[in-house]
Amino acid sequence: MNAKSNVKEVMKKKLQPILAELRNFSNDIEAASVMSRDGINIASAMDDTVDSDRLGAMCASLLSLSDKTAAELQRGKLKQVLIEGEQGCILMVQIGERAVLAVVSKPTSNLGMVFLEAKKTVKTIIDSKLI
């Protein structure tokens, strides 16, 4: 195993319990994933029904477009993106400059609590200096 993949494994191992804690906070949170800004999955806590690589690729596209939209409309630096559909929500929150936390929730979820827990999780990840 090369040094780069070893670092990724260590990071994944340390992020897994943080993401599991977020997911276990509420039955309404179906998935949580940390990915690089270019869509590479770093760590996740989700069922087999969600393809983490596909989620990463879609989030990277959405973040890129959202960044450009925020800049074009002079809204400042992008902080988060919320997508709300009939079957639930996807919240993406920046983790510094290089990563993002994606949280997938059910339509019955209390969005205020999802936002709050996502922000706490981001702070925990930043404070741990993993990313």
CATH architecture: 2-Layer Sandwich
Number of strands: 5
CA radius of gyration is: 14 Å
Q: Which geometry do the CA atoms define?
A: globular
Describe this protein's structure:
With 131 residues, the chain is an alpha+beta fold. It has a single domain (3-127), classed as Dynein light chain 2a, cytoplasmic (Beta-Lactamase, 2-Layer Sandwich). The protein contains three helices and five strands; from the N terminus they run αββαβββα. Strands 2-1-5-4-3 form a five-stranded antiparallel beta sheet, with helices on both faces. Strand 3 (80-85) and strand 4 (88-95) form a beta hairpin. Helix 1 (3-25) runs antiparallel to helix 3 (111-127). The chain is globular, with a radius of gyration of 14 Å. The two termini are 21 Å apart. 29% of the residues are buried.
Strand and helix layout:
Blueprint: H1 3-25, E1 29-36, E2 41-46, H2 52-72, E3 80-85, E4 88-95, E5 99-105, H3 111-127
Antiparallel strand pairs: 1-2, 1-5, 3-4, 4-5
Helix pairs in contact: 1-3
Question: Main attributes?
Answer:
131 residues; alpha+beta; Beta-Lactamase; 5 strands; 47% helix; globular
Report a brief summary of the structure.
The chain is of the alpha+beta class. It has helices at 3-25, 52-72, 111-127, and strands at residues 29-36, 41-46, 80-85, 88-95, 99-105. It has a single domain (3-127), classed as Beta-Lactamase (2-Layer Sandwich).
